[in-house]
Write a structure and sequence with these properties.
The complex is a heterodimer of chains A (144) and B (399). Chain A is α/β, with parallel strands linked by helices. Chain A is built from five helices and five strands; from the N terminus they run E-H-E-H-E-H-E-H-E-H. The longest helix of chain A has 27 residues. The chains are: A alpha/beta (144), B alpha/beta (399).
Chain lengths: 144, 399
């Protein structure tokens, strides 16, 4: 019997409202729970209250930018996946994302949102595998 | 040095003096005219237009100084040297003559050699002065040219800065437009079966079901085109990477026409002559479509007031090139504008309608493809644009 999966949670971080709305609408429709934040600081505040599986974040934002958010998320929420989307296509940005362990770095304007969908799905699968492993461990009988 | 003989007008009531001076000066370098009374001197001067005057100081009626003053009022003689003949040693009178515009004196009795030398000197001085004035004028023109070049260069830099700004600003809107379109596609895939199941079947619903996919596709094409323009603008501040591959020229034409469908409207008759439908050129199809769209838009604009607007499109092969010729039956392009249309910021439309960048960008694109683009007027009236791009096999041979 197929188990009903708990929905994965996505946090969309971008200073442009239209981008947040577009992504929120799209991923809600394909069965994710979606939260939004307009900069890195707000994102971290939200993450301390809600469990976030995947972050989709822009790089250039006021108050706290995406790279800084990535750094903080690595430290405070190591299990959270991050996918960076950015209009600033520079070597520095891409290298920083790589070094800080982002799952992917996608450039704006996006050719096709399915590229982002795939990255999110990949992250969700990864999380689910670990959840399955943990669950299996909890169900295992203690060795006498 | 001076091949043209200098003209000298001599005014003296003393006929003997006139003869002596004339004889002293007449040679291959000088042409002399003599006038023996000051009344006729002015009209003679206007007709003869001398390069130098020799005026007697003492003359009945209008004397030398008065004559000199009168002549100097004429713009023709503003800088013409005037030499006085005088036997007066009176310094006062000499000063008066200098004030009136005299540059030198020849004293009586007249020494032929002295006359010759003084005339020669003053003619040379006058000539040098003229050359200096011409040189100054040339320098001014050069300065003006340089300023224009600097302004042009500055505009290009500004264009680069503006382009960078546009490229940046357009990215987000392009992103959420295409993202939202794909969301709508998903919504539609849910809605469509629901509509079908509901049994609702009005004419309007049938129309919607038929048109929805192409409507969405065309929005995406528009976004693609915007992205193409953005890519092209990047050229102004950094070298971009363009995908030049063999592409079907008629395909580019079709796409461009589709994109312009609404603007070209129903009243413009489009006649297509595709001599070689299978012409393959080496090009980045998006950029070529952008160029074609630009020309179509310009053509539509030119035909706005035309009662029976016709646009003629010809596709043909010409030696190593695949070419498209677009012509109209509008008013044509003025000779003055023919050179300017390719310049950045040149537009005949109002400031709101024309950025003036379209043809400038179009030319850059075509030249970057090692093709040619030109515009002109047809014999039968109307303007034409001609674009040629390197053919596929030719390019392969070259590389």
């Amino acid at each position: 019997m197929p188990r009903k999966h708990k929905k994965n949670t996505i946090l969309v971080v971008d200073d442009e409202e239209n981008i947040r709305e577009m992504l929120r609408r799209h991923f809600l429709f394909i069965n994710y729970d979606v939260f939004v934040a307009k900069n890195g600081r707000d994102a971290l505040d939200l993450m301390s209250e809600k469990k976030i599986d995947i972050i989709i974040s822009d790089i250039k934002m006021p108050v706290m930018d995406g790279i800084q958010l990535l750094r903080e998320a690595r430290k405070g929420f190591p299990m959270t996946h991050t996918i960076m989307i950015t209009g600033y296509v520079t070597m520095d940005n891409v290298l920083a994302c790589m070094r800080l362990g982002a799952d992917a770095c996608i450039f704006k304007p996006m050719e096709d949102i399915s590229e982002l969908e795939k990255a999110v799905k990949h992250a969700a699968t990864h999380i689910r595998q670990w959840e399955t492993t943990l669950k299996t461990l909890l169900e295992m009988k203690p060795i006498a | 040095m001076n091949e043209i003989a200098s003209k000298i007008l001599i005014v003296d009531d003393d006929l003997l003096s006139l003869k002596i001076i004339e004889k002293a000066l007449t040679n291959s370098k000088h042409v002399c005219m003599t006038v023996n009374n000051s009344n006729e001197a002015i009209s003679a001067a206007k007709a003869f237009k001398p390069d130098l005057f020799i005026l007697d100081y003492l003359m009945p009626g209008i004397n030398g100084v008065m004559l000199c003053r009168e002549l100097k009022k004429n713009i023709l003689f503003k800088n013409t040297p005037m030499i006085f003949i005088t036997m007066l040693r009176d310094t006062e009178q000499k000063l008066e003559a200098f004030n009136a515009g005299a540059v030198d004196f020849i004293s009586k009795p007249i020494n032929a050699k002295e006359v010759g030398i003084r005339v020669k000197t003053h003619l040379e001085l006058a000539r040098t002065r003229k050359e200096l004035e011409e040189y100054a004028a040339d320098m001014e023109n050069l300065a003006r040219e340089r300023v224009e070049q600097l302004i042009h260069a500055d505009r290009l830099i500004t264009l680069g800065v503006i382009s960078a700004g546009i490229v940046h600003d357009v990215k987000n809107p392009a992103t959420f437009i295409s993202g939202n379109v794909q969301t709508i596609e998903m919504f539609w895939n849910t809605l469509k079966p629901a509509i079908n199941m509901s049994g609702a079947n009005s004419e309007k619903l049938r129309f919607i079901k038929k048109e929805m996919p192409s409507t969405l596709t065309e929005i995406m094409d528009g976004v693609d085109r915007i992205k193409g323009i953005v890519e092209r603008l990047k050229a102004f501040y950094k070298k971009g990477y363009y995908e030049k591959v063999p592409c079907l020229l008629s395909g580019c034409l079709e796409n461009a026409l589709t994109l312009c469908r609404k603007v070209l409207k129903d009243n413009i008759v489009i006649k297509q002559e595709l001599k070689d439908e299978n012409v393959m050129v080496i090009a980045d199809h998006r950029q070529i479509e952008q160029v074609l769209v630009n020309i179509f838009l310009n053509t539509a604009d030119a035909l706005k007031k035309n009662r029976e607007p016709i646009m003629h499109i010809r596709l043909y092969k010409d030696l190593e090139y695949g070419c498209i010729n677009i012509s109209d039956n509008g008013l044509g392009i003025s000779d003055e504008n023919l050179k300017k249309i390719w310049e950045p910021f040149f537009t005949t439309k109002g400031k709101e309608d024309g950025t003036g960048l379209g043809l400038f960008i179009a030319k850059s694109i075509i030249e970057e493809h090692t093709g040619t683009i030109m515009a002109g007027n047809q014999k039968q009236g109307g303007a034409f644009f001609n674009i040629c791009l390197p053919l596929e096999n030719q390019h392969a041979k070259k590389t």
